[in-house]
């Protein structure tokens, strides 16, 4: 992973071409119909100026020659009418293309979101991959990667079309000579040698344009990467969460000082302006030199009588366009090669391997919910570490069991749940469902058996009903019932009263105000109840609470767990906590210590064993929750 990031620019010509073509294929997939419309628009935009140049030259030659009125009127009508038709056609296409242009960032981001959803879970916890994803997002914001292709490739195609149109006339001019005897400089201008020299100058100009474009693009990307740190710091001033701490502890000056320090010590704004100015000056000088060379060369040819005044206007325009487009062609190549840095990062992310075995078996749908889970000598090490998070864990539990997983922080409780839900596969041993290795089941089928409320659960700022149901279309009565069962009766009643005033429904209020103005604020306890309601709505056979109430005091946590145990009815409930008082009502308690399952039994059995870990933990915590007689 780090190696790929380090060698992001060490690519040969074949690799450069492969990256660009892969990006092009992806762009066609993201926005079907974009390139067909874009190519038609390019053709219209390319033909338009040459059409005008061609008929203008014919008009001038006619005025300088026979001056036939009928022919002049015909040429004028062709010039105006043709340009009007081309312009009208181009405007119709441009409206649609501009709309698709606006969607390029969104389409690419949606694609990456879809890739991330199907990604192996361990990648989401890898800090290197998280940073890579952030870099990809930032580069997209700066117009790099696939969005860059939507803008640069059309320019590249247009330069090719221009080269075909202008090149046919320019190449004929380079070796076109006047009749007669010439000496000295006039002989040189009239000879093919001048055309060869002019072609060499065009090639040199193209090389310089390529270097200027690539240098400008790479320089700006390098400066923009520095801005990532500044933007992440500035977000602290706008965050509603960190904003409270900022005001409480008066950290405004600290953050502003950090922003100023980043701004002036790294001086990315000055660096960016310096790069734009430096390469802009070089580009201006090159363009001026090209224009002067074209004018002098075509004027000298016209002076020698190689062609007339009308043809001089035509040749001057076409040769100037040819030279400009040769430079533009090489500039586009330079920009595309520089843009391949961003494409390589994105495809490194997209191509991350999913090494988890994906079985094909469907989970048996049983009306009696008779499922049994077995951990058979399971051990697990997280990626990039040699330490065992779990070792030699063997246990069984069946539907209807009330199981508590207890232990100190870092004892392996959450790792046990991640393995149970198959977010990770065991390093050694097996996990079985009704005697079959869980890796043989389809992942989506197996996950459908579980409903988990994690310690750091996430509630998005979507309508309340969509949050509870995890769907756009859902059973509104069931969602409301789950909220009431989770203890949200009073809040739901308040929302229903408010909904009557606003002409909407309680479940349509968003959980927060960050994205939707009709949202409402919920307290921390209310959000926990929403998370519990979401677990109930899924109606999975296994329901797991992974310390979602860790911020509460022991007595309040125990009350939440006991309440959820009552409303979970006949489901298998797994309660994870480092507070032993919260789980005394469970049928069985599994005690973890330093990644090992050290005890299993009821509360009374474990509390009566002075030599056990549970006894030590119980007595150490008893002062926090023991009630006075």
List keywords for this structure.
23 helices; 10 strands; alpha/beta; six-stranded mixed beta sheet; Rossmann fold; 629 residues
Task: Present the secondary structure layout.
Elements: H1 2-6, H2 13-30, H3 34-64, H4 69-102, H5 104-117, H6 121-124, H7 127-141, H8 146-174, H9 184-190, H10 192-234, H11 240-248, H12 252-265, H13 268-303, H14 309-350, E1 372-380, E2 390-398, E3 402-406, H15 413-420, E4 428-433, E5 436-437, H16 443-447, E6 450-453, H17 464-469, H18 476-485, H19 489-502, H20 524-538, E7 542-546, H21 554-567, E8 572-577, E9 588-593, E10 596-601, H22 603-607, H23 613-625
Parallel strand pairs: 3-8, 3-9, 6-7, 7-8
Antiparallel strand pairs: 1-2, 1-4, 4-5, 9-10
Helix pairs in contact: 2-8, 2-14, 3-4, 3-8, 3-14, 7-14, 8-14, 10-12, 10-13, 10-14, 13-14, 18-20
Which structural category fits the helices and strands? alpha/beta
Helix residue percentage: 55-70%
Strand content: 5-15%
- Helix count, DSSP H or I runs of 4 or more residues: 23
- Mean pLDDT value: 78
Describe the structure concisely for a colleague.
This protein has 629 residues and is an alpha/beta fold.
Structure overview:
The structure is a single chain. The protein is of the alpha/beta class and 629 residues long. It has helices at 2-6, 13-30, 34-64, 69-102, 104-117, 121-124, 127-141, 146-174, 184-190, 192-234, 240-248, 252-265, 268-303, 309-350, 413-420, 443-447, 464-469, 476-485, 489-502, 524-538, 554-567, 603-607, 613-625; strands spanning 372-380, 390-398, 402-406, 428-433, 436-437, 450-453, 542-546, 572-577, 588-593, 596-601. Among the domains are: 14-31 and 103-223 and 268-349, no CATH class; 372-449 and 540-625, P-loop containing nucleotide triphosphate hydrolases (Rossmann fold), CATH 3.40.50.300. The chain has 23 helices and ten strands. A hairpin with a 2-residue loop joins β4 (428-433) and β5 (436-437). The radius of gyration is 36 Å and the shape is elongated.
């Amino acid at each position: 992973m780090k190696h790929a990031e380090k060698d992001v620019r060490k690519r040969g010509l074949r690799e450069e071409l492969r990256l660009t073509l892969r990006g092009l294929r992806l762009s066609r997939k993201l926005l079907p119909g974009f390139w067909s419309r874009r190519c038609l628009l390019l053709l219209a935009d390319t033909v338009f100026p040459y059409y005008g140049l061609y008929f203008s030259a014919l008009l001038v030659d006619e005025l300088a020659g026979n001056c036939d009125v009928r022919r002049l009127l015909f040429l004028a009508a062709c010039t105006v009418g043709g340009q009007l038709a081309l312009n009208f056609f181009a405007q119709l296409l441009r409206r649609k293309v501009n709309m698709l242009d606006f969607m390029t960032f969104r389409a690419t981001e949606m694609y990456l979101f879809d890739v991330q959803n199907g990604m192996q879970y361990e990648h989401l916890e890898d800090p290197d991959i998280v940073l890579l994803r952030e870099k990809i997002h930032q580069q997209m914001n700066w117009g790099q990667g696939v969005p860059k292709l939507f803008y640069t490739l059309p320019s590249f195609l247009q330069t090719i079309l221009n080269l075909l149109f202008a090149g046919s006339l320019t190449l004929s001019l380079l070796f076109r000579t006047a009749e007669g005897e010439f000496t000295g400089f006039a002989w040189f201008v009239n000879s093919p040698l001048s055309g060869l020299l002019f072609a060499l100058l065009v090639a040199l100009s193209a090389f310089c344009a390529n270097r200027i474009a690539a240098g400008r693009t790479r320089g700006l990307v390098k400066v923009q990467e520095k801005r990532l740190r500044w933007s992440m710091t500035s977000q602290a001033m706008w965050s509603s969460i960190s904003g409270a701490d900022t005001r409480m502890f008066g950290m405004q000056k600290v953050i502003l000082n950090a922003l100023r320090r980043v701004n002036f010590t790294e001086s990315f704004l000055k660096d960016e302006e310096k790069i734009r100015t430096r390469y802009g000056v070089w580009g201006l000088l090159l363009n001026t030199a090209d224009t002067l060379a074209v004018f002098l060369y075509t004027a000298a040819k016209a002076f020698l009588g190689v062609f007339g005044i009308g043809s001089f206007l035509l040749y001057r325009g076409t040769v100037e366009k040819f030279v400009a487009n040769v430079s533009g062609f090489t500039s586009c190549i330079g920009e595309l090669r520089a843009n391949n840095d961003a494409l390589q990062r994105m495809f490194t992310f997209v191509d991350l391997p999913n090494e988890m075995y994906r079985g094909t078996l469907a989970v048996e749908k049983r009306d009696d919910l008779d499922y049994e889970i077995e951990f058979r000598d399971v051990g697990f090490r997280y990626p990039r570490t040699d330490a065992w998070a779990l070792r030699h864990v063997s246990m069984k539990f069946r539907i209807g069991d009330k199981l508590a997983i207890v232990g100190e922080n870092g004892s392996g409780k959450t790792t046990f749940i991640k393995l149970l839900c198959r977010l990770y596969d065991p390093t050694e041993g097996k996990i079985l469902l009704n005697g079959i290795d869980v890796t043989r089941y389809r992942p989506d089928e197996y996950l459908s058996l579980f409903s988990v409320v994690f310690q750091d659960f996430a509630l998005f700022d979507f309508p309340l009903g969509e949050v509870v149901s995890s769907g756009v279309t859902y059973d509104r009565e069931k969602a409301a019932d789950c909220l009431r069962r989770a203890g949200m009766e009073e809040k739901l009643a308040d929302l229903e009263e408010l909904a009557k005033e606003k002409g909407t429904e309680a479940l349509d209020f968003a959980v927060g105000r960050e994205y939707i103005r009709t949202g409402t604020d919920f307290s921390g306890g209310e959000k926990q109840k929403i998370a519990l309601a979401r677990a109930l709505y899924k109606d999975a056979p296994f329901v797991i609470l992974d310390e979602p109430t860790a911020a509460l005091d022991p007595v309040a946590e125990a009350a939440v767990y006991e309440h959820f145990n009552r409303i979970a009815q006949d489901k298998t409930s797994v309660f994870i906590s480092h507070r032993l008082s919260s789980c005394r009502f469970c049928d069985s308690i599994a005690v973890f210590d330093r990644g090992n399952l050290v005890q299993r039994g009821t509360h009374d059995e474990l509390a009566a064993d002075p030599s056990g870990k549970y006894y030590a933990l119980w007595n150490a915590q008893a002062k926090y929750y023991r009630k006075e007689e």
